[in-house]
Amino acid sequence: MNKIHIVHIAVHLGGGAGKAISGIIHQTMDQINNEVILLEIPKNTFYIEALRNIGVPITISNDADTVAERISENDIAVVNWWGHPLMIKILAKLPIVKGRFVIWNHINGCSYPYLRTEFLNVFDKILFTTPYSEHNNLWELGQKKKILEKSALVYGMGDFNPAKICPKKSFFNDGKLTIGYAGTINYAKLNRKWLDYYEKAVENFESIEILMLGEPSKEVLEDVKKSRIKEHIKFTGYVTDVYKYYSQMDIFAYFLSNENYATTENAMLEAMASGLPVIALNHPVEAHIIEIDENGILISCPDEFAEAIRWLVMDENAKRLGEKAREYCIRKYSPETNVKVFFEVCKAASEMKRHLFTVKDVLGNNPFEFFCRQAGKERKLFEKIGNGGKITEEEIRKLPYIYRETDKASVHQFLNYFPGNRDLKILEECINRYEN
Predict the structure, then answer these.
(1) SS3 181
(2) Contact (Cβ atoms closer than 8 angstroms) between residue 135 and residue 284
(3) How many alpha carbons lie under 13 Å from residue 326 in its C-beta half-sphere?
(4) CA 170 to CA 192: how far, in whole Å?
(5) What's the average model confidence in pLDDT over 228-248?
(6) What backbone torsions phi and psi does residue 408 show, to the nearest 5 degrees?
(7) Element (H, E) at 79
(8) What are the DSSP calls for 49-74, one per residue?
(9) Whose C-alpha in 50, 116, 215, 404 is 20 to 30 A from the C-alpha of 176?
(10) What is the DSSP string of 334-349?
């Protein structure tokens, strides 16, 4: 059988997307000739080096002509999407090119950055990384049917194989309670009241350590310094061997904001596969993973967090719930099934007729439109600026935090890639004025 030739297009190979893309490439080498084009170099080159070590060609270029050339030379282009302004910039500048196009969404698309049907319909095939994506409230019924007919679910789980992960055996050793978290530590994803939950835990239990795996943002660090439980919190920075730290934890707590781009949630799955009991906030993505009282605990307030901990430390409840979580992961998240679905989607796409990639019309005519078209109900508010209107302090304060972040498709990040745009500058000035 002839191999399918695929070019994976991504802004970078950092974080969860880097793990997902690298993992799927590693597992399809026998069936697919993979190559990668990155639009910029991430701070951490771990996944770049891992792919180069197995002979995967990697081009780093943000030149639209180079991207178009690689598309034309391959059977399929897989566009890895998380609403990044640089990806939008390159796709908008792309010269006329024929190809077959698959989009792999590494965001849920049900909150900012939103996935709109007019954009998704440009692609031959669509891959989601969470079943929650199918519940996008911006999609009308007829549009939803069209999207789902050409979509599939391929988790961004990388080379995650839960059956091969060594499970935790003992809990609460020497009377110590270690509660852990891994992943993005900024307020685009983390719940702004996360410290309230831990303060309640410290009030109720002695000898608690809070172990946070990842690089905290400046604002998170400032909040911790002002917290009365700062001596209980330890940040590890970026780590490559997460399982070493999972073995030190007794409970995995996952407190995300109620409006975030969460998707496969590898950190939570890795913790579950390690036999850790998971406590998460009752949000849609988490609720698509956790079956209440079967493989984890969903809560809604700090008092419920304390109650969940109280139950877990009794008898061997933590061990039993962790074992159920591990069994669930082994049953549900099979790497073989994930790779099979990815390959079948790509094979079907490779048999389709090449066509022109016409994405410019749906992205917008200028950088401010690019930004606005990813917004939800806030879009009308932003468009007031383009029409010469003014935004009030109250309107700015009601915006989901992700719009005010330094990255994650925020207005600040858009300005980094489109520094001359007047409307983006006005919006950033409004945000900075009211923030300060």
Answers:
(1) strand
(2) yes
(3) 17
(4) 32
(5) 93
(6) 55, 40
(7) strand 76-81
(8) HHHHHTT--EEE---HHHHHHHHHHS
(9) 215
(10) -HHHHHHHHHHHHHHH
> Six-digit token pair at 436?
């300060």
| Cα 61 from chain centre | 23
Sign of CA dihedral 22, 26, 28, 31: positive
Closest CA to 239 of 15, 11, 13: 15
Q: For residue range 297-336, what is the model confidence (pLDDT) as tens digits?
A: 999 999 999 999 999 999 999 999 999 999 999 999 999 9
SS3 40: coil
Listed residue (93, 138, 91) closest to 113, CA to CA:
138
Beta bridge partners of 208: 177
* Segment 124-133 mean pLDDT: 96
User: How many Cα atoms are found within 13 Å in the side-chain-facing hemisphere of 147?
Assistant: 21
3-state secondary structure string, 115-148?
CCHHHHCCCCEEEECCHHHHHCCCCCHHHHHHHH
* pLDDT (0 to 100) of residue 48: 95
Stated pTM of the model: 0.91
Distance of alpha carbon 203 from alpha carbon 224, whole angstroms:
16
List the one residue out of 80, 44, 51, 357 whose CA is nearest residue 59.
Answer: 51
Contact in structure between 186 and 217 (CB atoms under 8 Å): yes
Identity of the residue numbered 145:
K
Cα 78 to Cα 68: distance, rounded to the nearest angstrom:
13
Residue 292 and residue 144 in contact, taking contact as beta carbons nearer than 8 Å: no
Q: What is the DSSP string of 280-326?
A: EE--HHHHTT--BTTTBEEESSHHHHHHHHHHHTSTTHHHHHHHHHH
Q: Closest Cα to residue 72, out of 354, 347, 352?
A: 354
Residue with tokens 């006005």: 426
In sequence order, which residues have a C-beta less than 8 Å from that of residue 316 and are 6 or more positions away? 171
Residue with tokens 């990806």: 87
CA distances (Å), 86 to each of 90, 119, 259, 361, in order?
6, 16, 23, 17
Amino acid 139 reads: W
C-alpha–C-alpha distance, residues 129 and 140, integer Å: 21
Q: Are 248 and 178 in contact (CB under 8 A)?
A: yes
List, for residues 17-48, the tens digit of each pLDDT value: 999 999 999 999 999 999 999 999 878 899 99
Cβ–Cβ contacts within 10 Å for residue 149, how many?
A: 8
CA pseudo-torsion sign 184, 186, 188, 190 = positive
Quickly tell me which residue has 């990842």 as its tokens: 214
